[in-house]
Hints:
globular; Thrombin, subunit H
Amino acid sequence: MYQDENNIYHYSGDESLPRDDYSPAPRDSGRTEQSQPTYESAPVYSYDPEVKRKAKTPFFRRTGVKVTALVLACAVVSGLCGFGGALLADRIGGGNTAISQSDRRPIDVVVQQVDGKTLMTPAQVYASTVNGVVSINCSAMSTNIFGQRVESASSGSGFIITADGYIVTNYHVIENASSISVTLYNGESYAATLVGGDTDYDLAVLKIEATDLSPVTLGDSKTVNVGDTVLAIGNPLGELTFSQSQGSVSCTDRAINVDGTPFNMIQVDASINPGNSGGPLMNLYGEVIGIVSAKYSSYADTVVEGLGFAIPIGDVQTLIVDIMENGSITDKPYLAITAGTMTAQMAAQYQIDVTEGVFVYAAEKGGAGANAGLRLGDVITEMDGKTITSMEDLSGAKKGHRAGDTVSVTYYRDGEYHTTQLTFDTQPQTTGTTQEDTDQPQQDQGGYGGYNPYSGYDMFDFYDFFFGRN
């Protein structure tokens, strides 16, 4: 067998080694001599006194010598490396190893008055307008599946519209909130009350009891161009308060659908995240040109980046004043027609040569559409200079107007295009259930395009349309 003593191995089968250099013979295992294995030649190890002497040297003496040698070697190597590095640096830097330090003095960002004429840097825009931006935190009570009342929280952004505490934000930021808290840039927090809002425009106005605030300055969203630099200040993720992101305008009149509601928006590539909703979109003059409203993080199964949207401030500016004065939008424009998106199937069925636009199913007698000459079978293709291909386009075109405004409407009838002037009615505050009471026909009623063109109409009207009787 082998015995390990200080990493020195000996073979116990060699009786020529001194007795104290190998272990005692193992206990008798009961085997007879004949049962023991035999070897033709056994290994023979010579005895070396020097090995024994080294083995019995105290461990700390041998370790100390090695450590000392190692330290000395490291010191020598370090010295050589230092000398070599200095020599190399001297050769590379021409002998000058000083670190270059700029003596440029920092430029102080001066708060400027937003006058619509002074072009500013992004840093100046932030310093000049951030006091007009607010962080909004909401709580809401709901009932879970177990019938228990639970509280949930949400956050968003907004901006101060008047010095006495009126604040604009998105309606979806404060929807169903039981309490609303507004925090200013200086850290002061106020309880806010909801003055009014509208889901169709995703617009809400809040009020806090405060004075001498710093309101923002509204700009003209119609002057925005693709490529313009824009800035979004808000409360991303509900925690990164008063953050500013920068980008450019990607499209000035992008039609998108948000939860079934059509919007014409300013598309931007600035970073916009949950919590930015309701905050201002600004130009480099420090003017608010839009209300940050939505972001696409995915489309179908595709992950997307750089797709943010803001409601043009010009589309809702008069509505903001209406809510401030009346608590709701009282002057919503109303066409007083029942209509639906035109389809190729409808065009083939009705033998109409256009496949895009808004098909008029009916016009209320004495209403805005009827007074403008619209009737069953007309296809609206343009309003106020904007091409109309669907109900979403029509709803979006209306959002820039109020009741009483007059717009030009182009429609297709009997193989020809006609243009007429239409003056909007005021949309009723409470509408009925029949299709004649609304511009947007009821869904899922059958018929073409999801609509039922035969619901609630006088059959003589259809006879007139299909067979040409006037």
